[in-house]
Design a protein that fits this description.
With about 180 residues, the protein is an alpha+beta fold. Helix 1 runs antiparallel to helix 5 (about 175-185) and helix 2 runs parallel beside helix 4 (about 130-145). It is rod-shaped. It is built from five helices and four strands, in the order αααβαβββα. A hairpin with a 2-residue loop joins strand 3 (about 160-165) and strand 4 (about 170-175). It has a four-stranded mixed β-sheet. About 70% of the residues lie in helices and about 10% in strands. It has two domains: about 1-85; about 85-185, Dihydrodipicolinate Reductase, domain 2 (2-Layer Sandwich), CATH 3.30.360.
């Protein structure tokens, strides 16, 4: 009986040892499963953080570029305002007239068709001389194929040059509008 008891005790010790080993393996397996789940969550969070970081970086870059562009335009506007004079203004008006004369037949036809009965209004950075007014009127009459009544007001905000509104069309050759165009990319 003692032998059976000792044998049973040895078996029981083996069973405990096996049960502890099974428990240890199961515990290790569960630990690995949780670690893997945590690693996957961390990887997913890292990927999300990288996406957010890239978006923020892109937004910051876009904002910085926008600010740089606005600062550049402001600098150019100040510099051009100081440099602009009547000579530059008259040169821009001359270029404006040359550009109007060189419009394609299709562009001229579109202007004629869409300006019938439309009021012709204009702004100039400096007062136009009589010769410029006459040249502008003749060019517009030739372009539109009808007599025009030209009303030009002085607008120093244009810095130098001219702007015409002809119905739905706005025709520009001035520094202010060019700078505004560049500031909006």
């Amino acid at each position: 009986m003692k032998q059976r008891y000792e044998a049973r005790l040895a078996e029981w010790e083996e069973e405990k040892k096996k049960a502890r080993e099974d428990f240890r393996r199961e515990l290790e397996s569960e630990r690995q499963r949780h670690l893997n789940a945590i690693r996957q969550e961390l990887d997913e969070e890292r990927r999300k953080a990288e996406v957010v970081w890239e978006q923020e970086k892109s937004e910051w870059r876009r904002h910085t570029e926008e600010q740089a562009l606005l600062l550049g335009v402001a600098f150019c506007a100040r510099m051009l305002s100081r440099l602009a004079d009547e000579h530059l203004h008259h040169r821009l008006v001359t270029l404006f007239l040359e550009d109007l004369r060189q419009l394609s037949g299709e562009e001229k036809e579109s202007l004629r068709r869409n300006s019938t009965g439309a009021e012709l209004r204009g702004w100039s950075a400096y007062p136009l001389g009589e010769e410029e007014r006459l040249s502008l009127s003749r060019t517009l009459e030739s372009l539109l194929g009808r007599p025009v009544e030209l009303s030009i007001q002085v607008d120093p905000d244009l810095i130098a040059g001219i702007r015409l509104h002809l119905g739905a069309y706005v025709i520009r050759a001035n520094l202010h509008d060019e700078l505004e165009f560049f500031s909006h990319g």
